[in-house]
């Protein structure tokens, strides 16, 4: 189910994708790098159409069922014939991930595995079977992501005529990542979670990218890019493959690649090893950080990601309590009726923040930026001179103080966070209570199985995110109780002193 390598960027094309709020903090693993366009650039504008709200998703005519072993075995045979060295692992059906790589022999801790040569990797420099199509895209300086997405579709459409036919046949036709959920499914199952907004944003960006390519290139070269092949459904498929399988290789200056065979490795929260290029062997490898016995599934890490991020890109949710990097995004918003609303909003915009902002909360706590935003939200007009300082701290761009504190409004700030936290908890409670009796509204047995599985994924995600919010609620209530008990003791002491002097 989740076959990928260490994650790359979680944005589509950095030059047009809106800044995601959580990207500001240390919990985020993705970094956005500007892309410089030349000649006739693809601006990749975001579509405002409702085409992403379709409730019926057509399957692409290539790929396989997500648990197919027949196609995976054919892939392994082709790779071996094409230069992949003998392996200590084989593709098998597994409990975690449906398909995965399982040890055939004893594997030592610290051992290098895979050794996939670059000639078997798909990169932006890979040769196109339809060379004219590749030349058109490169002449228009199309960035790597949409270039690779178009490349995948082009090669897939050629079927056995493409060099990559065995690899493409082993790719899942319709995985469970949120890219493949309909708008109805996102609204129904993930209404309580902020990851729903991330999914909608991602799908919208893919649609915008496709529309831009169609307008600027595909419509001008219909013989190279016929619409029956290059359409929104095939683009959603190809971008879904990139989000779940594209690997960034640190030793090759961050170059991105699809690495057949390696992308059959599943993720474990207990593993920290990742893929990279090894110059000595001239292949993509990873170094095990534990030993494996024959028959055990071998894992890598997809990165330090929350359960929501793993569902977004890979279509799975780890078992509850197994992901130490799990987090939930809490939305905080300025009060529009606040007398200082305009000044506060202006201060936030100076640091690329908005009047409604999401912050990641982990089971161990929350970032100082969240507290700074809360200070700003509750601060009275008399503290207007501090608005800029608070906004800078909320954006992690404060260079004067590492950890701002305003004792005079700390109680109000904590109560503000608690109110937002409890509001979010109520949404999770509503969904989880209703999930048991939720009508799935499908007639096909296969579609029913899919809907049941999607609902279970949503229940697992919402359960883990609500647990983090419960923990935050407990900590906030305790801190507020301590503050208020301290104030009560001080007030009682003051009253005692007054009586003594009387």
Keywords for this structure?
disordered N terminus, 13 helices, 502 residues, three-stranded antiparallel sheet, 40% helix, mainly alpha
Account of the protein in words:
Helices cover 40% and strands 10% of the residues. It has 13 helices and eleven strands. The protein is globular, with a radius of gyration of 26 Å. Mean pLDDT is 86; it is low at 1-57.
Question: How many E strands?
Answer: 11
User: Taking Cα atoms only, what radius of gyration do you get, to the nearest Å?
Assistant: 26 Å
- Measured as a percent range, the helix fraction is 40-55%
Class derived from helix and strand content: mainly alpha
Strand content: 5-15%
How many helical elements? 13
First-to-last CA distance = 77 Å
Numbering strands along the chain, what is their spatial order in the largest sheet? Answer: 3-8-7
Gross morphology is globular
Could you give the topology of this structure?
Blueprint: H1 70-81, E1 89-94, E2 98-103, E3 112-117, H2 131-139, H3 144-157, H4 165-169, H5 183-189, H6 195-216, H7 232-245, E4 247-249, E5 255-257, E6 266-267, E7 276-278, E8 283-287, E9 299-300, H8 307-314, E10 327-333, H9 341-349, E11 356-362, H10 368-378, H11 387-394, H12 410-435, H13 445-501
Parallel strand pairs: 6-9
Antiparallel strand pairs: 1-2, 3-8, 4-5, 7-8, 10-11
Compact description:
The protein is mainly α. The protein is 40% helix and 10% strand. Helix 9 (341-349) crosses helix 11 (387-394), helix 10 crosses helix 12 and helix 12 (410-435) packs antiparallel against helix 13.
């Amino acid at each position: 189910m989740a076959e990928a390598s260490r994650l790359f960027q979680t944005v589509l094309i950095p030059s047009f994708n809106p800044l995601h709020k959580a990207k500001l903090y240390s919990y985020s693993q993705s970094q956005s790098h500007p892309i410089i366009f030349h000649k006739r650039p693809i601006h990749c504008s975001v579509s405002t159409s409702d085409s992403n709200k379709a409730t019926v998703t057509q399957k692409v005519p290539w790929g396989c069922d997500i648990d197919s072993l027949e196609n995976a075995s054919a892939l392994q045979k082709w790779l071996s014939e094409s230069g992949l060295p003998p392996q200590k692992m084989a593709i098998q059906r597994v409990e975690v991930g449906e398909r995965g790589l399982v040890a055939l022999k004893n594997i030592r801790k610290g051992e290098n595995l895979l050794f996939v040569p670059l000639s078997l990797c798909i990169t932006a420099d890979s040769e196109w079977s339809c060379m004219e199509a590749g030349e058109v895209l490169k002449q228009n300086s199309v960035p790597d992501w949409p270039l690779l997405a178009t490349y995948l579709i082009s090669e897939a459409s050629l079927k056995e005529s493409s060099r990559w036919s065995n690899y493409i046949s082993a790719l899942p036709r319709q995985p469970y990542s949120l890219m493949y959920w309909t708008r109805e499914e996102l609204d129904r199952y993930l209404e309580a979670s902020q990851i729903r907004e991330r999914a909608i944003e991602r799908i919208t960006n893919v649609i915008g990218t496709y529309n831009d390519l169609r307008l600027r290139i595909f419509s001008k070269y219909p013989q190279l890019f016929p619409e029956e092949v290059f359409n929104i459904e095939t683009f959603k498929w190809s971008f879904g493959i990139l989000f779940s399988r594209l690997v960034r290789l640190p030793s090759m200056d961050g170059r991105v690649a699809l690495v057949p065979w390696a992308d059959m490795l599943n993720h474990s929260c207990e593993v920290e090893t990742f893929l990279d290029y090894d110059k000595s062997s001239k292949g993509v490898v990873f170094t095990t950080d534990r030993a494996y016995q024959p028959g055990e599934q071998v894992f890598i890490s997809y990165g330090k990601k929350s359960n929501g991020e793993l569902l977004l890109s890979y279509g799975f949710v780890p078992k509850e309590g197994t992901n130490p990097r799990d987090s939930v995004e809490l939305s905080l918003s300025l009060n529009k009726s606040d007398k200082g609303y305009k000044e506060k909003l202006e201060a936030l915009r100076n640091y690329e923040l908005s009047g409604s902002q999401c912050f990641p909360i982990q089971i161990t706590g929350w970032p100082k930026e969240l507290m700074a935003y809360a200070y700003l939200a509750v601060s009275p007009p008399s503290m207007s001179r501090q608005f800029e300082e608070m906004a800078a701290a909320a954006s992690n761009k404060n260079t004067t103080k590492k950890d701002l504190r305003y004792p005079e409004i700390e109680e109000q700030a904590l109560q503000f966070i608690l109110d937002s936290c409890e509001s979010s908890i109520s949404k999770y409670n509503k969904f989880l209570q209703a999930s048991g009796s939720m009508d799935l509204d499908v007639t096909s047995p296969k579609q029913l199985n899919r809907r049941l599985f999607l609902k279970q994924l949503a229940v697992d995600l919402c359960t883990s995110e609500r647990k983090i919010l419960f923990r935050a609620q407990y900590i906030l209530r305790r801190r507020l109780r301590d503050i208020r008990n301290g104030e009560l003791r001080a007030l009682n002491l003051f009253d005692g002193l007054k009586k003594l002097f009387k």
